[in-house]
Amino acid sequence: MARTYPKDQVLRMYRSMYLIRRFEERCAQAYGQGKINGFCHLYIGQEAVAAGVTEALHPTDYILSAYRDHGYALTRGADPGMVLAELFGRATGYSKGKGGSMHIYDIEHHVLGGYGIVGGQIPLAAGTAFASRYRNEDRITVCYFGEAAANQGSFHETLNMAGKWKLPVIFLCENNRYGMGTAMDRVSAVPEVHRRAVAYKIRGEPVDGRDILQVYEAVKDCAAHCRAGKGPVLLEANTYRYRGHSMSDAATYRSKEEVEAERKADPIPKLRAWALGGKVAGEADFDGIEAEVKATVDAAVRFADASPEPAVEEVWTDHLVEPGERDVPPRERVHGVKVEWPSHPSGQELRVTWELEPHTRVDEGEPTPGLRRRA
Amino acid sequence: MAEIAWREALNQALAEEMERDANVFLMGEEVARYDGAYKVSQGLLARFGSARVVDAPISELGFAGLGVGAAMVGLRPVIEMMTWNFAILAMDQIVNNAAKVRQMSGGQLRCPIVFRGPNGAGGRLAAQHSQALEANYAHFPGLKVVAPSTPADAKGLLKASIRDDNPVIFLEAELLYGVKGEVAAGEHLLPLGKADLKRRGPDCTLITWSRAYHAVEEAAARLEAEGIRVDLLDLRTLKPLDEQSILASVQRTNRAVVVEEGWSFCGVGAQVVDLIQSQAFDFLDAPVGRVTGLDVNRSYAAVLERAAEVNADRVVAAVKKAMYREEG
Q1: Which is catalytic among the residues B17, B29, B60, B172?
Q2: In chain B, is it the N or the C terminus that has fewer CB atoms within a 10 Å radius of its CB?
Q3: Would you say the C-alpha torsion B114, B120, B121, B127 has a positive or negative sign?
Q4: pTM over the 0.90 mark
Q5: Could you report the per-residue pLDDT of A87-144, keeping only the tens digit for each?
Q6: Residue B129 catalytic?
């Protein structure tokens, strides 16, 4: 870590990780109290990835993820009370309580969802990246997924299209070594996911996901690659989750020794130690952040606890769009604040200049009278 | 007015909507340089360019999902499935993403996408290429399902489907692409969710959609020659179902026969029958009849395929049964 970082940036990254850590610990507690039900997948141990990626991105870049998704939204500026309210199934949640833990959406901050089907978000990322190129935007997409999702067909189909069409997406594989209870190398011919990039002729590389500064530098570089139109990147962040796959996982497939060893590389104290050692910041700065985060999370719990459940009539809403219906931003609905909602050129204003396939028709004459149907 | 083929009507709809709205793009196998496997997208690549008419690899799940993602951020994709048989590979993206992102996000997102392509039998194509699959999509909340029968309905409904902000399953038919019909000149839009009463008569209500309409129309003409006059209700949209039109017709005729190309078990026709028996029971003078494709996988041999199909003979017999008349 020979680079220098301004103090405010280092503290911002620390706070981002620390917020996730404290939030997730409270989620575990709330689950035990029966306030969160169903599935709850905690991000504890992996914080450096979400926080490092967000630090390297523009606020308007899109992110998509799987179901271990509370942390990404928090790093992007989502209201922690509203995220927790969503986990508690309350009307004040980002999705009015209709999504829950696996479906955290904060469109204001371009967080396009958590998804419950493994690998289901990967083709969506090709679509959001396609839209960015179509509109000639300086915007990339980051698609988070676990290493086990790289065995789904959706992964292969998507990387092929993204590679061929040079779509601006960082396929960010968080390799925490276990797909639920199955170690990746037990079920994969090529367990190191980044090595698969060569099959799609795209850039692929690993990064130490337990070191936020390395994640930050790697994503900055990958993002520049994407913005320059050079195509997608498959970035494999090696990381570890200290808890089980979900709240109901006893995690008998890993040894206590392994978990203890991984905890020694905890990204949060690692950054603190680095900053203190390099005199980038002092103990008081970190203590201050920790106190503020504790207060923030406490307030989030109070907010979620006090929030009502949705009205039962809401069972019928938000399935189909009615003509003239306006999408109400969550923070406007819940807190009455005016928010900047994503907008795009209208279909009458937009000029599409992208040539996805540069050559025009091979033959300029009559179309070949070919098969009427394809087998 | 002009008489044009189904494929031409779809081509006009696509070209007009793409001209009107630059957010609309078409993606699918063979849609660009091949002009479409069934020539529906003829000329569109030359007119709109390779970013708006995109030849996809054979990756139905992948490009269906790409379409959903693009729709989530405000583009208006038209994703062509070469046949709905192949779209089975894309089911996860259609039913778990397109149909659900609005609800999972609590209304923060909409998904203005159209999935379109030929549904049902293509003629001598055997089991894997001959399936009528509308019931699968109609089953899931969060999708609209449209199944026109004539070129005019196809054009008006495809334009409306592209302008609809919801995911629409748009079901065509290979054996209809060459069928001609009158299509009005100028801007021609039809509302989703409205059936079309194509014939009026007091004796029986015939309810149908898509390609089966043509067999039903043939049956209706034969019945008319025998003095039996039917209401012929072409649903045009399966989801949302035009319940009002169905019930209004049955209240007039007191008899109903539902005709569909697809399999009987859990077919959309079963839903229509349930609606009629539960909400128009007191108006019925006979049980509601159904004519469907046989509940078998479709064979290649001509005699076996014919045996499994809906045809005008079977529809005529069903109407007479509903009227308690002997066949003859």
Answers
A1: B60
A2: C
A3: positive
A4: yes
A5: 999 999 999 999 999 999 999 999 999 999 999 999 999 999 999 999 999 999 999 9
A6: yes
